[in-house]
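Need tokens for this chain, all 203 residues.
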Amino acid sequence: MTQRQAPQAPQNMRKSTLDRLENAVLELFTARDFNNVSLIEVAQAAHVSLQTIYKYFGSKEQLVAYVLDSTLTRLAQRMIDHLNGIENFRERLRKTLWVMLDYFDRHPRVILLLTVSIPASRYQNLPVYESPDLMNAFLGLFKDGQKVGVLNNNVSSKILLDVFMGIFGRVVQMHFLRNESERLTDQFDALFQIVWGALAAPS
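Here are the structure tokens for all 203 residues:
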């Protein structure tokens, strides 16, 4: 039996091909269960050969993980760009939440791919979660806020991150599963007050 070669780097593919694959993954894997979508369907939807997908990704799991990592990396870069120059911790957290909500308003299928197709236990296998720039901008936000006494210091910064992501993830996921007509950012001020109340240092 011929042993399959290790996948080549997807970055070597044409951008137009990667874009078609990303769109196909987001469309198919957010409409149906992961196990019910075949790679041949992805190939047909993206107008690429099945051999090409195996050549650059190796498996369905790796293809979905790559698409999710690529989309979250773009979100991470937006967060980093928007946080530059903001010193006030409350405003930095406020801006972080707004950027995230606005991103998923524009790309709703990404949050569904994250919550439906990829088990939470595998999130840390995504390269974006190892990005030092993202960690400095995101987890560093909570650490710095605790140091100056603005954020709750009775738990670790990782717990604060979990609380933030727990509120955010549930709100965004259910927003799209319920097919809400308004944008996530339409209720931003009220939602931020809830988030801030959960994370701020006790008065």
